[in-house]
Amino acid sequence: MSVIEVQHLQKHFGQKRVLEDVNLSFASGHIYALLGRNGVGKSTLLSIINNRVLPTAGDVLYDGVSAIENEAAQAHIYLMNDLNYFPSDKRVSWVLKMVGMLYGDFDWQLAAHLQQVFKLDGQAKIRSLSTGQRTIMKLICALCVPVDFVLLDEPVLGLDAPNRELFYQELLQAYGDRPRTFVIATHLIEEIARMIDHVFVLADGRMQVDQDADALLNSARTVTGTPAAVEAAIAHQHVLRRQQVGNQLSAIVMDVSQTFQPAAVEVGGVDLQSLFIALTEEQANA
Ligand SMILES: Nc1ncnc2c1ncn2[C@@H]1O[C@H](COP(=O)(O)OP(=O)(O)OP(=O)(O)O)[C@@H](O)[C@H]1O
């Protein structure tokens, strides 16, 4: 059971302070969501964990040992992102072979299956691939490498809806066949909500949320009713957001207890995307 720990990570690009003090840990056998508004530093964080960018301060530990400039530790971590590292005149089959050679124990059976279900021609040259097909090629690499930690930065970029659905199915299947850790940074929150078990929200250079997904959603409620009734119901609650339409007020509250059942209002659940919007709005207004 391996673990990645990020400790007091800081990254400044000149005057731009992107990460201020990021702390987290990724344990074995989880699917994590890494959420955050545009430009908060999700890609930067994943690139530092995979040693592609050096931090200004802080450390990334793999099983207690620094993973920064540590090839042995990095052999357990794979990052898929939107960058193209492969020569455009090479073929898909060449890319898979290269990745297979670099990481060893590549799952060729799964690669053949994925090429077939996504209809990706192994003989196609990289320069002839569409954006979505290029993403599919990179996803095949990410699912077939034998590593314990797979970091997926915007994994469905350019994929149409049926292919996104197919990818989520294949990811869950691969996870079931060989449990490992996936970290998914995405803006398509509702699409991944059903498969993740832990949520990180990065805001203002720090982790604003680091919580079990079910616990997070179970602690949030939407309270709707007349403004007076809603205000009375949420008076002692942690209110993230208020929205009034006509004479109905709707509020999102979090950290509520299981016994939160106020009278004269309607109380419902909150989906992950609405909660994310409310949380990041609250942070921006703080
Ligand atoms: N090499 C660099 N030099 C200067 N600034 C950089 C560099 N790389 C990233 N940044 C800046 O760091 C900030 C965080 O970028 P990053 O790509 O990590 O954000 P993100 O959360 O992944 O964003 P998005 O959701 O839009 O993809 C941005 O303001 C970006 O402009």
TrEMBL record:
Positions of the ABC transporter domain: 4-229
Gene3D superfamilies (UniProt xref): P-loop containing nucleotide triphosphate hydrolases
CDD domains cross-referenced by the UniProt entry: ABC_DR_subfamily_A
Name of this protein:
ABC transporter, ATP-binding protein
**Originating species:** Lacticaseibacillus sharpeae JCM 1186 = DSM 20505
Q: Which Pfam families match?
A: ABC_tran (PF00005)
UniProt cross-references to SMART domains, sorted A to Z: AAA
Among InterPro entries, the record links this protein to:
AAA+_ATPase, ABC_transporter-like_ATP-bd, P-loop_NTPase
